[in-house]
Specification:
146 residues, alpha+beta, OB fold (Dihydrolipoamide Acetyltransferase, E2P), 10 strands, globular
Length: 146
């Protein structure tokens, strides 16, 4: 992809023109990123400190004791959003709901164990083992192409 920027005092607002032979997934993604609202951050609390969590560092988001937590390499963070609100903020291609109480980062999965009857065991690269509830098994199988 070639990028060209021209500085012109006649333009009070930036103007973007995309020249291409044909529409492609790459162009569609680029347009989506340009037109999206400001990215919505995910704030995590740990030891009375607030930290903005990058989506690519999150392994899983889950509920326990009526609270929502995010698991990262740096440990667990308490979140103040509900799972459905987080689903709206998370990258759709990277995160998938596996139960009513958990969302996983599909890029942090080490293996899926299909030997369990009616469910799927998920092993994350950080060593965490979790399970896909029966309700979400068809969705995971669709994502995996099985």
């Amino acid at each position: 992809m070639e990028i060209e920027i021209k500085i012109d005092g006649n333009y009070k607002e930036p103007k973007i023109i995309i020249l291409t032979e044909k529409m492609s997934d790459e162009i569609s993604l680029l347009v989506k990123k340009i037109t999206e609202d400001v990215p919505q951050m995910i704030a995590g609390f740990q030891n009375d400190q607030l930290r903005v969590l990058e989506q690519d560092e999150i392994f899983r988001i889950y509920t326990a004791n009526n609270k929502v937590f995010a698991r990262t390499n740096d440990g667990e963070y308490s979140l103040r959003l509900r799972l459905y609100e987080l689903e709206e903020r998370l990258e759709k291609n990277d995160f998938v709901r596996i139960s009513n109480s958990e969302i996983i980062n599909i890029r942090k999965v080490k293996a899926f164990d299909l030997s369990f009857a009616g469910t799927i065991c998920v092993k994350l690269i950080d060593g965490t083992v979790t399970y896909v509830s029966r309700r979400y098994v068809p969705k995971i199988k669709q994502i995996l192409g099985i």
